[in-house]
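This part of the workshop introduces the protein records we will be handling. To make this concrete, we reproduce a full record directly below.
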Amino acid sequence: MSGWRSLPRRAVEQVRADLRDDPYLRYVLLLSAVMVGFWFWHRIPNFATRDEYSRLLDAMVTYASVIEEPSFEGLKTGIEWGRAPFGATLYLYTLAILPVMLVAAITGDLGAFTTIVFPSWEFGHYQVWAATPEWIWTWSLVSIRLTNVVAALCAVYLTYRLGVAIEGRNAGRLSAVVLSLTFGFLTISKEAGEDMPALVFVLLALYLLVRYVQTDDGTLFLAASAAGGVAIAFKLTAAPVILLIGVAFLLRARATDAPLTETLYRPKLLLSGALLGFAMIVLGFPTALVAGAEPFIERVFGGSTSRMSHPTGPDAPVWWWFLRGYFSALGLPLVTAAAASVVATVATLRDRSSAVHGTVLILTGLVAYIAMFSQWHDFRVHHLLPTFPLIALLVGGRLVDLRERSSSLARPVMAILLVTTAIYAGVGTAQFASMPRDEATAWLEDNSEEGDVVETYRVHIQDTAVPHSLTARHVAGQDSEAEEAMACPQYIQIGYRDLLYLKEDTYYRNGDAQATYLRSLLNEEYNYRIVAEFGERPPNFVPQRPTPGSFTDLLRLGVVPHTDQFADEQELAANQYTLILERDGECDTSRHPPF
């Protein structure tokens, strides 16, 4: 028990010692803070991703349900509501938005929360978003985004600590810098979700396992098991941490100066670690505590396996999805360095002496994640997030090796790699200050008048550029009364995904009626004229997407940071092209949007 009690104190002392003994660490962390935090408030009070609004609403509905019915039943129904029984993110974001709820109670706006109870799913919960005061969305999103920024900084520090523990301070610094300049890592730091908190606990578990192998401290093994369980409770794709725990146990047994049969026989440690990790997973799912085992089992075993075959993107070879994700997330120079570092690490593994165990764990984690995602139909950049620190550690370590062997060669290699990666990440990060949807939202806010309506053909409010003060009309799902009352809106908004109807043979958004209607609008028929557009207009308004399965089409993704993405992740500038049309004349009753 004393070992457990000392862990927080030892952690604080380690951070203080690092800041004291490494004069460069504070500058690395400052660089990280600037990169991960730059323009983190984009899209607020709208949402950056669908995951972001669903995770925030999970927490807000729980509060609203308890306020409306302050009992266990109110808590249970609030927790059970949601897109799916997601795990520990509910705890984190419920705590993050607590100050907002307290301010609402003090200022007499607590009733705004009660209107959030069980909101309609139509148009991405637009009705509750429009009815709830803007300041509640603004500060709630700021709170959970800042939580994510802090988690990103923790991930950078843990990457530094892993590098130091395995190969020394130079490797730790370089690894932390490489991660801080990884564009895919930076994009995910600017949205709220479970990816970044899960990554923190994966890295914490990995660090504790490295220290366990080095010291044979059983408390560290148990702490790593607990951290791994928390990581899985945040995101089920953290499951490879279980393999890391097993490999670390084997490495420690092999490193001990005793017969392998004796060192492997530690049933108390293994059973305690397994039970502790499982307990963290169960406790990390609020639905398991209030609704029983069934939704928990369905989520863990049903939801995780269904993702392997559920298509959310076009059919393409799995290698194309890996290259697409890594080209976009790292940029071509860092992708090249990562591939070379993996090969060099494997080739020199036997020569790594004291660093071999930590290096084996890093390689194990990387291989495990790649093997897991290779079984999926498709995946996104945010799914690859746990591999970015592992890649940064391998790159940082091999750069240090190169500098020790040939400093004259290492200097230009390091300069080229860091400068090109910094330019790629810097340009991509700077673009968050001028995103098309943000600019379109500001234009509508400045030019619209009270009572104006904007029509949109998206199914989620997150996919639109709509000011909180402006009424939005989503065509699909409107009842006849609303259809008649809003038949001739002042504005019509067309986005990048709408234009996909104009591109032949897309894997979704195909339809002659929709394509004909959109082309008529773009030709300024129906008494609507184009008054503003934001972002780069596709040629003849037809999106030019990378061809699924084409290697040459992918090369641009590793050169231009904000490139075309597929499906549900944060849409970067290329996907945010927004065109606004304004009514110029009488209402044309022949206009019937075929959506």
Remarks:
- The chain has a mean pLDDT of 90.
- The CA atoms of residues 352 and 359 lie 8 Å apart.
